[in-house]
Amino acid sequence: MFHTRTGQMKALLRQWQLQSMVIPGILWMFIFCYIPMLWLIIAFMDFSIAKPMLESPFVGLKHFRDFLTDDRFWRSIRNTLGMSSIKLVLGFPIPILFALLLNEIRSLRFKRTVQTISYLPHFIAWTIFGGIALNWLGEGGVINQLMMALGLQDRDILFNSEPQYFWWITFFTDTLKETGWSAIIYIAAIAGIDPGLYEAAELDGANRWQRMWHITVQSIRPTIAILFILAVSGILGSNFEQIFMLKNNMNMKMAESLDLYIYNMGLVSGRHSFSTAVLFARSIVALGLLLLANQSSKKLTGDSIF
Amino acid sequence: MARHGGLRRIGLFEIFNTLLMLAVCFLTLYPMWFVLVNSLNSPEQASLGTVNWFPSELSLASYSVAFNDKTLMNGFYITTMRTVIGTVVHVLFTAIIAYGISKTNLIGRKLYLKISLITMLFSGGLIPSFILMTKLGLYDSFWVFIIPSMYTFFNMVIFMSFFRTIPDSLEESAKVDGASDYGVLFRIVLPNSMAVIATIALFSAVYHWNDYYQGVIYIHSQELLPLQTMLYKIIAENSMSFMQQQAMAQFGARLPGNSIKFASMMVATLPILIFYPFIQRYLVKGVMIGAIKG
After folding, report:
1. Residues near A206 by Cβ (< 8 Å), separated by ≥ 6?
2. Is A18 close to B119, i.e. CB distance below 8 A?
3. What is the ipTM for the molecules in this complex?
4. What is the DSSP letter of A165?
């Protein structure tokens, strides 16, 4: 369109207003996204926050060797994978089941009311929700009273001080808080299914379960696949706000996820370079996981993100 | 549902399913009800820890302790300020960029889009961001709540696709009348985008209201702590706040911590609970737009 450099300059000047809308944003991205990405390089240095960046000495893979031989690192990997696996295996189907069952409710008003109530906890802060959980799990709390009333235990258990319960506590609190919200996307997908399909199936004599399985589930399969890919690729992540709220010195050996390990090493102990090395390695593995999950989903179901 | 005959027999499944849904509602609402009941109980009752459906001894004592606590009220103020300023800044900044990028004749558009897409796929993470905030002087500054959350790629895309649906003829006629690009944006485009602005503003506001983590990481001074970070310290770290010490002096040896904790939790959640019935449809709409894009 423009044959000369000056022509291009003129065109650029003519749209200076549009450009001035976008350029501050691009600058913001450079400062808040690209500079931190560049600073991942401190994973290979002995960085000290008091000195200018380039005065810190390069140490190669020293920090990588250090964390790979740190037992606490491997413990945090185990905790992360443990919590993520419970969430993935037991937690992933729950919102789908909820959406399927909610869809079977006939009264439209009741259905809407249940849905609206179900995603309220998503908007309650983890400080509040975690605070309630800590109270319920503590001495004389709701859970202890319930268990004793049911005759399942004969004395108070301080659930949150005994590490073996921690993974389950994160699973149950997360399920309670997020099921309704996670179901929205499935409910929307179900709402988009052609009602004619159900009528045809009913005429063919399909019962409720057959319709649910062969029409509803099959129709929302792409949605399920995409969310499953995202869930699998996020397996090295954890809900930091949740874990940070529920952890304490007693349950730390089961509570310290990779995120929390990075936080503890980097910001509590001040080992910036060491923690950044862990961050760096994790980003690479996470990217690999995303690609792997995407490929296997493409092979198995024909649905994928890219 | 239309597909079910209206006169069909109500089977065992319907009964079971309805009960299950009622159970879901109960499990969802009960935790908040529990907090409300205990916050309204007298401190002595709440410290007994018995489970009640209603306050056994109605008392606003805990609320008066909470509302008279200067530290806590300062947290309330900081949270309100960051919610209002943070939301306005986020919506304006993101919408302006989105409008610029939505124009296909923008020179460099493809490059700009690539630059912003990469920010969603990769990030430096906790430690590099912490170093950046320190170097920028944002550590222990109020602006650490505002500036780093001014923009997200996700919301930019939502704005952009909404702007595309506004008929060109509207913008053209304003241009003919001599309006500049900024004039068109502020007088034509934004007033016609109230639905999407409401959605994004609400998500941003809920984020700012509920976030406690930024305060834990970046704030050192007591007077800059948001309400939720204070609650984190009171609940999870069990630190004695000024409030609790005062209450202990007031109520003697019986530790009335619980009901005051619950009252503070209620104060921090009330705005969400009050607005929730009115805003929830916008929030759902936001997820829908996001899901279609993503």
Report:
1. A214
2. no
3. 0.87
4. G
